[in-house]
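Field reference: sequence -> structure
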Amino acid sequence: MFSSRERSLLLLAGLAASLMTLPVMLASWGRPLRHLEWRLQDLIHAQATPLPARDDIVVLGIDDASLELRSAFDEDVNASRPLQLIKQGWPFSREVYAEAITKLLNAGARVVMLDLMFTGPSNDHPEGDEALRKVIESNPGKVVLGANFTTTEGSNTAGLGTSMLQKPWTGIVPDATPIASNIGFINYWPDDDQVVRWTRYHRSMQYEDANRPDLTHLDQMPSAVTAMLSLAGHIEAIPKDDHLHWPRFTKPDAYRPLSLHEIFVPEMWTSNFHDGASFKEKIVFIGPAAAHMHDSHVTPVGELLGVQVHAQVTGATLSGQLLKLLPWWTSLLLIIIASALAWVLVAYWRRPIETMLTLIAGTIFALLVCWWLFDRCNLVIDAVAPLGAFNLAGLLGLSYDFRLERKQRQQLRGYLQRYFSPDVVDLMLRDPEHFRHLQRGANRVITVLFSDLRGFTSMSEMLSPEELVKQLNHYFNRMVQIIHGHSGGIDKFIGDAIMAVWGWVGSDTSEASIRQTAIHAVTTTLKMREGLRDLNAEWQAEGKPALKIGVGIHQGPAIVGDLGSETQSGFTVIGDSVNTASRLEGTTKEYGVDNIISDTVCAHVRDLFICRSTDLVRVKGKTIPVPVFTVMREIEQGPIPGLDTYEQAMLLYRQGAFTEALKTFRSAATKGLDDELTTVFIRRCEALVDHPPETWDGVFTMTKK
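Structure field:
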């Protein structure tokens, strides 16, 4: 748990993280993050539900088929003046456009826009200029021509700055003032990543009075789309300002251009255009569509021809599908909210993995919300800066939390390892709730090992206190390493004795786990034997006395808990099983062996270790006898000579056949098992042969601990 001071520090870290994300919002107007925001909005734009293409907008393209007259037969060309002019090559005579406008308007088209620039007289077909002029003059309010702003160096992507206006030639439009109702600029200014996202419906324009050169006028020049919509009677759909507007593009194959030349082929005029009915009451765009004309723009939904962009913007305007952008301060507000939300998540949930997943899920959810608002409400939400702030604040909070948690865990681990074994410490840190449950008290099946030094009292008389403490600590260090190395925990040190426990803190209480604790304890005993042998070799080389140990191991139920007073307590185990293990350690002196295990332990390990029957004893303070064994070595190390004979002798001994048991014990000694334990039973049998007991149950009662 965090202290109040640590929580205050975490609060300050969270607030600092929030403040640190403010530059992210400011930097979002810089190029890298601005581009990232555009890319995200383009992705949302492209994945949004495509709007249906309007059926009152038609695009005729000057495409490769028109340039090559692919759909026209020779007889069609010979019978058609426009087709003959087209066949003469590009650029077409302007008479072609005059004929097209006439044909379309006669078919009932509301307005026709030429997405072409006529900035000067025609060199090859001067008669075409006059034909186009006459058609425009005879159809007022029906034809729109394009003007073009040529921006100079230093102008920005919004088309502001120093610019020149290229207007239609006065030979075609005699009064070609910039604000003429049938002239509109055809420019789309891409952002600095060269993607067209915005449009202007008007642009403020300062121009000279044709009659009074000394006077200038400031007015709003319409775009070609604005001029088209105005002449078509849709003035109410046009934004009145000169701000940037973001139209919602539909799918890129909408308003696919039809071949211009086909309207001059009678058969196609009838079959494809239903004798002109396809153009009745329609807005018609005519523009370049051939690949080599390079009149295309990259948009959020893909690359479109310039004439298609006009159609897309016109369709979005008529359908009321202009995207709405929130004011700049909403991004700042979203950044602050996102940062605070991320900090609260980190500070109070306190689960790093779940927090990371929540940050990811929150980001995905926010993107889905942005998509939904775009798709359903035409609302554009700046997401990169707020989501960047959300994740940055979350990561900073997690980093601080991780650092603080790590520092706390290291401090706590260092403190706890002074009192608990590593397995207990690991449990405390890994599963504190489980450990708190054990602290309150729990029944567990445990394996207990008691080890005690032999001859320690006499050794203490031979060494100075400093030497004694040094040698004893050397011994403890080696034994504790062995116990910890085999998953054991140190319950306590009692003078020169060690109490080790297995199975007291883990959450696995299965039979397999209980068996494994017995195996660990017996393995530890043999390793302690080897470790003490190495220590004795070192000590004897230094002129110090050698030591011997006795080990008792028992397995059974016990109570685990935190026991003690309010001022001092300890995590320990209590119960009859602990007492039995302690008594078994004491019996090693009686039989001259370095370890004694109970039958419960032996049942778990006899398939891995050679367990030698030791006796059927009734330890002090107990009434029920316990079969006990001593572990000699691992089975894989091979059989022990004389052991089978010894076990036969032990069976005879317990049956009360003392004479036969005596002979068999002596035979086991002769075969190689001539040790102190065999000698103990030889002496017992000799005494029992001389003084047979009145009753015999094979139990030896211990009178000492």
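Note: The chain has four domains: 4-35+327-414, 57-320, 420-636, 639-700.
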